[in-house]
Amino acid sequence: MTVQTFIPSAVKAASENTVTQPMHTADVSIKKLYIETQGCQMNEYDSHRMADLLGDSHGYVLTDNPNEADILLMNTCSIREKAQEKVFSGLGRWRKLKEQNPDLVIGVGGCVASQEGDNIQKRAPYVDMVFGPQTLHRLPQMLDQHQAQVEKPKKEKIKLVDISFPDIEKFDFLPEPRVEGFKAFVSIMEGCSKYCSFCVVPYTRGEEVSRPLDDVLAEIAGLAEKGVREISLLGQNVNGYRGETFDGDICTFPELLRLVAEIPGIGRLRYTTSHPLEFSDDLIQCYRDLPQMVSHLHLPVQSGSNDVLQAMKRNHTIDVYIDKIAKLRKVRPDMHLSSDFIIGFPGETDAHFAETLQFIKDLDFDHSYSFVYSKRPGTPASELPDNTPEQVKKDRLAQVQQVIKQSSIDKTDAMLGKIERVLIEKVSDKDPNVLIGTADNTRLVTFIGDAAWIGRFAEIEITEIKTLNLVYGELLNLEPDVA
Ligand code: SAH
Ligand code: F3S
């Protein structure tokens, strides 16, 4: 089981790669699959589905060693240029593996695949399959097609590229998620229709499409039966959720939250990501009514300047954001708030930047993410004149990151003496009497306890701050198992 790191959102993004971890013991006679995941939690979710899919259809098991794999899959991210560059450098390394083992199958999925299509194979001809975020469910067929043409001469081979957007068909073909541990991600919608002027997501993942309500509820009920206690609902813009009900009505995101909270076993609810514009009063009421909702919200704002927000086509002002947060903090005074910021957007002046810096201080954000603006081909912002020198942008970013870091440290320090609700997840590797869990605000909490309590929630009084992301505490109350 993995313990969630101190990363609340989709934006863990692009800064790091993860390798989808094997759940099975390795065995040399078994065919092995290695998946490298770049980018957001949606991609991580998709990578797990790919592993489930190829496990069920072809018996592949995951390995964390690319050198022993029979298939290498790269699930790519194109949110910023840096992320995109990683794809070809990573593929260059895989090419060497293929030279040693010509039977090795290489597949590229995710948003770069979606954007580049067969250009991927033009630049990297040793790539066998290219698939988009919405066609990953067709991987088993693609693999069969690939195997069927292995022996054929080169000119008879067809290129295996499928980056279409076949609505939400994907979910009808995915096997039930395998469960490990007490936390699970559930994708509730795909794509985004907001078209912020800087962002590639609407082009790479398509417009918003919601999964039908009953499918989402059935998946969560199944996970709860298998012991899952914390659900993170995933989508690029979850509060745009409009899931069809069995009688043809539409279920909104706040309605969905209320239904999920009724499922026995679900003791904690998170979601990522939402847009401020659709952060509705109904949603705020959920925070008042549903104890399962964590006191932690990641609500990207991108800038503290109205001029910049307008150029970004975010369609709201700073005051709208401030009002919504004030309402939210009224029903949840202990709310931890985090956000995403883009620094150095075309036309951002020193004065605009100063507004952003002040805004970050005023809103008292917890750990947030900030990035220098990256020009993405095909987006409206890529046409805007941009006269700010790169070094100025970098300096601004450093200032923002310093303020954000200090504010996260202050938030952790403020936990001292407070009582936190913790999901108990595992025993410490170092001491069998010490348990480790996560608080609402994603900090790791350790305390003395009994391994039999794993999977339950507890009230822990925080007695010592160890690091930015680790605190010690003492048990005050162990909740009965929520199932
Ligand atoms: N659906 C999410 C955003 C997903 S992208 C939302 O709006 O909430 C994750 C983050 O990457 C964004 O919030 C933004 O801060 C950053 N990002 C997106 N496009 C970018 C670009 N062109 N340059 C720099 N950062 C970008
Ligand atoms: Fe991108 Fe804006 Fe949607 S940042 S994911 S277009 S809300």
Describe this structure in words.
By secondary structure, the chain is α/β, with parallel strands linked by helices. Among the domains are: 2-7 and 28-162, Methylthiotransferase, N-terminal domain (Rossmann fold); 419-478, Beta Barrel (OB fold (Dihydrolipoamide Acetyltransferase, E2P)), CATH 2.40.50.140. The protein is built from 13 helices and 23 strands. The strands form 7 sheets. Strands 1, 2, 3, 4, 5, 6 and 7 form a 7-stranded mixed beta sheet that branches. A hairpin with a 2-residue loop joins β22 and β23 (470-478).
Radius of gyration: 23 Å
Which consecutive residue ranges, at least 5 long each, have pLDDT under 50?
1-15
Can you count the helices? 13
Q: How much helical structure, as a percent, in the residues?
A: 25-40%
In total, the number of strands is 23
| Global shape | globular
Look at the helices and sheets and give the structural class: alpha/beta
Which cofactor or ligand species appear? S-adenosyl-L-homocysteine, FE3-S4 cluster
Task: Spell out the blueprint of helices and strands.
Elements: E1 17-19, E2 32-38, H1 41-58, E3 61-62, E4 71-76, H2 81-100, E5 105-109, H3 110-116, H4 119-123, E6 129-131, H5 139-148, E7 160-162, E8 183-187, E9 189-190, H6 201-204, E10 209-210, H7 213-225, E11 230-234, E12 242-244, E13 250-252, H8 253-261, E14 268-272, H9 281-289, E15 296-298, H10 306-311, H11 318-331, E16 336-338, E17 340-343, H12 350-363, E18 369-372, H13 390-413, E19 419-427, E20 434-439, E21 444-448, E22 457-467, E23 470-478
Parallel strand pairs: 2-3, 2-4, 4-5, 5-6, 6-7, 8-11, 11-14, 15-16, 17-18, 21-23
Antiparallel strand pairs: 1-2, 9-10, 12-13, 19-20, 19-22, 20-21, 22-23
Helix pairs in contact: 8-9, 9-11, 12-13
The structure holds S-adenosyl-L-homocysteine and FE3-S4 cluster.
